Hints:
Blueprint: E1 21-23, E2 26-28, E3 32-34, E4 57-58, E5 75-78, E6 81-84, H1 93-106, E7 111-115, H2 120-130, E8 138-142, H3 159-171, E9 179-182, H4 190-199, E10 204-207, E11 211-214, E12 216-217, E13 222-223, E14 229-233, H5 238-251, E15 257-260, H6 266-275, E16 279-282, H7 285-288, H8 292-306, H9 318-340
Parallel strand pairs: 3-16, 4-7, 7-8, 8-9, 9-10, 10-15, 15-16
Antiparallel strand pairs: 1-2, 5-6, 6-14, 11-14, 12-13
The site of 3,4-dihydroxybenzoic acid has 14 residues, from loops.
Amino acid sequence: MSAGTPAPGAALDPRSVDMSTSLSTVALPDPVLTASGCAAAGRELAPYVDLTRIGAVVTKSIMLEPRSGRPTPRMAETPSGMLNSIGLQGPGVEAFVANDLRWLREHRVRTVVSIAGGTVQEYQKLAQRLRHEPGIAAIEVNISCPNVESRGQVFACDPFSASQVVQVVRRHTPPGVPVLAKLSPDVTDIAAIARSVREAGADGVSMINTLLGMVIDPGTMRPMLGGMTGGLSGPAIRPVAVRAVWQVHAAFPDLPILGMGGIRTGRDAFEFLLAGASAVSVGTAVFNDPHALARISTELRGILAERGIARLRDAVGLGHVMQARHVEAQQARRSAQQEALG
Ligand code: DHB
């Protein structure tokens, strides 16, 4: 959406709204994707959602080797979100390719594969292992897992480490497969991290990962989670995510953004589009509503239609345009008032 785009117009028939979007070179018929870690490799959502019709399945971050994860308990409820400390439990890339990726391919599900590593070399090996696998629409590089042994491994907290990982993954991924860097909100300047991964070759960013949090049980008087700290997700983090998307879109309007963080409704998804996301991932919401993806897409379609926005793409970053117009109008009013006062 550019500054010359006309303001939204009269209401439309929801069926006429073009919901298609893209993330770099990947075309998506629908803007709502799963969020990594919240629907395993998609199969468990298949009874509830036609996975071929959603934007894409984003798989739980896969590592090179099988991994049992962190000690239990691994989840704690908070007033408007969930704290988790899974510790990247998973089957390892070989089993993932043989079972999950094969299933997704056989069922013709658009698939974004999320990868995680403890070192730059591990990310490189993962990219090399996946490079000849068909059926991967994009790679999401999880450089922001909060549940790793050392905070030094949260690559997304440091612009240089983040860029090193992204550079090797980009180098070892086929040119037609976009690489999205998953950013952490636990940084002072998220636009600086976005700049760094962009310069390293990221074709887009996914944002945000969970925020690092802790819950202490007043009964036992010690941390609730086995791993002590965990990642906070759900509605509590939505304003943080919207702010982060807004800042990165303002700094790099051409950088594709997959937005996520507490999206439960079409209205929430719309907020992310206005801030600058081209598509959204839905995570925690599917835990208590496995139909959430389709519902959110339908609600979003209705919201766009009501506002006379014929193409979803026209809503991407529209909040920035509306804000600029608002400020301009305010300034014009002020100047007129001052002139009238002589
Ligand atoms: C885990 C990984 C994440 O990236 C995250 O945001 C939350 C949890 C994990 O597997 O522990």
